[in-house]
Specification:
103 residues, elongated
């Protein structure tokens, strides 16, 4: 036979269950919000691509247009790489500055 729990043990178990339930509710709400953001991102990308397709149907891009788009994309990627390198450098030196150590 299973031993019966005391009143305090029941209250403790109930408190743990409530805390678990609240944590699960919070996690579900955060996941719903994240899914909503992802859905909005997908809808915006779909809208962007639809507009691009419409423009291409109305006027086919020239090779110069396509080359310019590629140059712009490369410039954006190069800027992102530079930003990430700077951020990485800052993160790599931060612990040394906090502890007063140097290499």
């Amino acid at each position: 036979a299973t031993p019966l729990l005391s009143g305090q043990e029941l209250q403790d178990a109930l408190q743990r269950l409530r805390a678990t339930y609240q944590a699960l509710e919070t996690e579900a709400a955060e996941e719903d919000a994240s899914n909503g953001v992802a859905l909005n991102d997908a809808l915006l990308e779909r809208l962007r691509l639809s507009g691009l397709l419409q423009r291409y149907r109305e006027r086919r891009p020239s090779s110069e247009d396509l080359a310019e788009k590629q140059r712009q994309a490369l410039d954006e990627l190069a800027a992102e790489v530079l930003r990430l390198r700077e951020e990485n450098s800052l993160l790599a030196t931060r612990p040394q500055e906090q502890t007063g150590q140097s290499e």
